[in-house]
């Protein structure tokens, strides 16, 4: 059996080596190049490909794989919103993802960045770097004094709830699929509007499906408390960036944690030093003292990367062998 992997980064190579050593029966070939209609032909002869979410996987790309007789794709990440699923279905693809590589990686990042926003760390660090060691005006707020609205109580949302409860925060949660543990704790509110009205901080942990796109917009922001803090470590298109920029300007939103951005494809995980972003709004957001931008690195821990590599290759082999895998995506 042969598995061909695209977009393998240097930080993934030790985990890949480990997996290969444990699976001598599988021939592994890989490239740093991303999967495109042009690079698809390099996978000729493979039973399946392993990729991660870096580019849109269009009908053209899927067709190019199908032309090589490849009808399976194993993602090393969780999100499948970059795949033309209609084309994938029509072309008879089996797709796996890594549904839980490390929910803690992402939840911890959200919690850490939230705490940093509340303690005004960006402003304080800038002052200290200039040798200004005065206390004022960078007085902070305590996590335990906040009501945090967690939108989405899947694996990541639930770990975040645990972490924030450790700090003593009051949690309200909303999800269309209720989790029994969260329900037992009585954390659910009945509607998003109720969550917006009650929360000092709102943290998003839902997928990018059409119902959620731009859920944070001018109208939803108007329903939130004055001075609300927004946390988005989920997907960039959940947030209407223009609406958030306007709300940061007016003070309606007092701070924002952004690990994802609406137009991040082709921008994040690239070196822009000395170059201009194609989207000037990002410059503005990065420069704001009350906005913490990270380039989709919430997931980026040694544990998560290891799980992403190992679980995706396990799934690729299982699919190629016609076996069950818990990571098969139903679409
Ligand atoms: C995901 O797993 O879906 C992520 O957002 C991580 C990234 C490597 C695409």
From TrEMBL:
Record domain D-isomer specific 2-hydroxyacid dehydrogenase NAD-binding: where: 115-298
GO molecular-function terms, A-Z: D-lactate dehydrogenase (NAD+) activity; NAD binding
One Pfam family in the UniProt entry: 2-Hacid_dh_C
Keyword vocabulary terms for this entry: NAD, Oxidoreductase
Alphabetical list of PROSITE patterns matching this protein: D_2_HYDROXYACID_DH_1 (PS00065), D_2_HYDROXYACID_DH_2 (PS00670), D_2_HYDROXYACID_DH_3 (PS00671)
Domain (D-isomer specific 2-hydroxyacid dehydrogenase catalytic) ranges: 8-330
Record CDD domains: LDH
InterPro entries linked: D-isomer_2_OHA_DH_cat_dom, D-isomer_DH_CS, D-isomer_DH_CS1, D-isomer_DH_NAD-bd, D-LDH-like, NAD(P)-bd_dom_sf
Family as reported in the entry's similarity comment: Belongs to the D-isomer specific 2-hydroxyacid dehydrogenase family.
Name used for this protein in its record: Phosphoglycerate dehydrogenase-like dehydrogenase
């Amino acid at each position: 059996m042969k598995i061909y992997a695209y977009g393998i980064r240097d930080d993934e190579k030790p985990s890949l080596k480990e997996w290969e050593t444990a699976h001598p029966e599988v021939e592994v070939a890989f490239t740093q190049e991303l999967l495109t209609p042009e690079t698809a032909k390099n996978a000729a002869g493979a039973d399946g490909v392993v990729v991660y979410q870096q580019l849109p996987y269009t009908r053209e790309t899927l067709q190019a794989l199908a032309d090589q007789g490849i009808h399976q794709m194993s993602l090393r990440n969780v999100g499948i919103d970059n795949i033309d699923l209609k084309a994938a279905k029509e072309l008879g693809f089996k797709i796996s993802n890594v549904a839980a590589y490390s929910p803690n990686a992402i939840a911890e990042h959200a919690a850490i960045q939230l705490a940093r926003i509340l303690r005004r760390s960006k402003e304080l660090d800038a002052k200290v770097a200039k040798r200004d060691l005065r206390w004022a005006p960078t007085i902070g707020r305590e996590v335990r004094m906040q009501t945090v609205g967690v939108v989405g109580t899947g694996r990541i949302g639930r770990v975040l709830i645990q972490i924030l409860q450790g700090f003593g925060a009051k949690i309200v949660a909303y999800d269309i699929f209720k989790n029994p543990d969260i329900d037992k704790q009585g954390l659910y509110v009945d509607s998003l509007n109720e969550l917006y009205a009650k929360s000092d901080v709102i943290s998003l942990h839902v997928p990018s499906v059409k119902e959620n796109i731009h859920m944070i917009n001018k109208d939803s922001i108007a329903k939130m408390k004055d001075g609300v803090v927004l946390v988005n470590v989920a997907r960039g298109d959940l947030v209407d960036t223009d609406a958030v920029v306007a709300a940061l300007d007016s003070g309606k939103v007092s701070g924002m944690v952004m690990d994802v951005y609406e137009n991040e494809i082709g921008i994040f995980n690239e070196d822009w030093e000395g170059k201009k972003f194609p989207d000037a709004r990002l410059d503005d957001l990065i420069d704001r003292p009350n906005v913490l931008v990270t380039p989709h690195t919430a997931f980026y821990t040694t544990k998560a990367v290891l799980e992403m590599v190992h679980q995706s290759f396990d799934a690729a082999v299982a699919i190629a062998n016609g076996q069950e895998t818990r990571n098969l995506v139903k679409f």
